[in-house]
Amino acid sequence: VSHTVLQEDFFDLCQRKKLQVKKLQYADFSEWQNSEKVKQQLIKQKEFWINELSKENMPKLNLLTNSKLHNKDNFEGRSIYFTIEKEATSLLRKIMKENEVTLYMLLLCIYKILLFKYTSQNDIIVGTVVAGRNQPDLQKIIGVFVNVLVLRSAPNEKKQFVEFLNEIKIKVIEVFDNQDYQYDEIIKGLNMPPTLKQDPLIEAQFTIQNFTEYNNKKEIEDSLSNNLYENKISKWILDLIAFEMNDQHIVLRLNYSTALFDESSANQFANHFIEIVHQVINNSEVKIGSLKLS
In the chain, fewer beta carbons within 10 Å around the N or the C end? Predict the structure, then answer.
């Protein structure tokens, strides 16, 4: 976000536009973070996370991979791109409207179902990176606000897709309402000290980026279309990023650990994601157990 703010300010200056005066600076945010009011809010949010993540042992994804070594300490990664085409995107938006969910919630639901299909686990954790700019005046400030949130849910074969989607909706709202409590503090509270080698809790990640309002949208879309963004580092086993460019289609980038996956397996995962998309747009009331993978 900071990079985009700086880039847009630079473009405005090149066009001799006057930059808007920012109401707040990063120092104001730091002062607000240490206020007594915020400290009280964080105590309540801490209680939420204790209840959310301390019920049972934290699940680990039992993914079948191509690596016999299963070396999670290796950060080497690669990226592949795939696309949800115009017609499918339009039908996804219909499901969004009917169920009053966001695109983020809908794609997260499909992602979790696919992870369930791969692992047969009924307790799945997916992480998500948030900008941490939940106040309007923070949107155009340069600085680090980012946090990682933990989304835990329980898919199973007997649930209908729309039923699980509603569960995801409720979970996302709850989690985002408690997004100010820092991920590092959650890890400490679970007695899972962070390491430099791997994330102690999250193995699969999902985020969405909306580029529809950016001044340089065309440049970004062209770059994505030509697969110019190559990520050679993967902190997680799987890191799925959706790029919402316009109402026509959705571009997705799957970053994967090369210590655990090869390109063929990553492409198969992407194909399976699209298969689930097509099945749920044809019947959003389908049971999870009835969704098929080729």
Answer: C
